[in-house]
Design a protein that fits this description.
The protein is an all-alpha fold and 254 residues long. The protein is built from 10 helices and 2 strands; from the N terminus they run ααββαααααααα. Among the domains are: 72 residues, no CATH class; 68 residues. 59% of the residues lie in helices and 2% in strands. The protein is rod-shaped and about 170 Å long. InterPro entries: Ebp2.
């Protein structure tokens, strides 16, 4: 003990408290019991009691040292523009950022792949439903045809249904294209030339023309006039000769 005291006296320096900042106090008073807790009463095996003893002792030191620092005009709070160097370097933080970015991109790719699989699955489902509906319609039509062939039914409604189903899209598109009234070209021609008006009706038959048979000619009507050849008789005189006959006539002329 004497040696320890001698060593302590050798390296002890007589410095001001602001240079040493040493505070030796017991735990702060318990707010529940309003009394300082005895260190012997703390069970060292109980983690909660032990940590609470450390906390109250540090609290007592703060309550003692903070007013003394303020009295000595020593700042005790960090300024707002204080810059603290990070424990890790910028290169290490850049690696961490790249790793986080790669993880985010991988998650986005996985989400896109899930959406594509869901869309393919839905497309296959729709395609399967369409094929099943077509097969069902075909089966119903074949059954109706068989019934009609066997004479069990005299209705041909299935043919009309097939035509309407096949031409549904065409009719819809045609109805969209059709317009009421004439187009611009037809309207311009109607304005320029008119609608023609009512014809004279010279070729129309009347009661008088129907009863008048004076201009009727049997030979002309029955193909017996002059210049007309009889059936099985001589050919008409003004008929053009054949190709071989024309060649013979050319050879004779030479």
């Amino acid at each position: 003990q004497d040696g320890l005291k001698q060593c302590l006296a050798e390296f002890r320096q007589q410095l001001a408290w602001v240079e040493r900042l040493d505070v030796t106090l017991g735990p702060v008073a318990d707010p529940v019991s309003q009394s300082a807790s005895n260190t012997d009463a703390v069970d060292p095996e109980n983690d909660f009691q032990r940590e609470m003893g450390f906390y109250r002792q540090a609290q007592a030191a703060v309550l003692e040292a903070l007013p003394r620092l303020r009295k000595l005009q020593v700042p005790t709070r960090r300024p707002d523009d204080y810059f603290a160097e990070m424990a890790k370097s910028d290169q290490q933080m850049q690696k961490i950022r790249q790793k986080l970015k790669s993880k985010q991109e991988a998650m986005e790719r996985s989400e896109k792949a899930k959406q594509l699989r869901a869309m393919r699955k839905y497309g296959k489902k729709v395609q399967t439903e369409i094929l099943q509906r077509r097969q069902k319609e075909k089966k119903n039509m074949l059954n109706a045809v068989k019934k009609y062939q066997k004479g069990l039914s005299d209705k041909l409604d299935f043919l009309d249904d097939e035509q309407t189903s096949s031409q549904g899209n065409k009719k819809g598109s045609a109805s969209q294209r059709t317009k009421k009234g004439p187009n611009a070209k037809r309207r311009y021609k109607n304005q320029k030339f008119g609608f023609g008006g009512k014809k004279k009706g010279s070729k129309w038959n009347t009661k008088e023309s129907f009863n008048d048979v004076s201009s009727f000619q049997a030979k002309v009507a029955h193909n017996k006039g002059p210049g007309k050849a009889k059936k099985g008789g001589k050919k008409a005189l003004n008929k053009r000769p054949g190709k071989r006959a024309r060649q013979k006539m050319k050879n004779r002329a030479r």
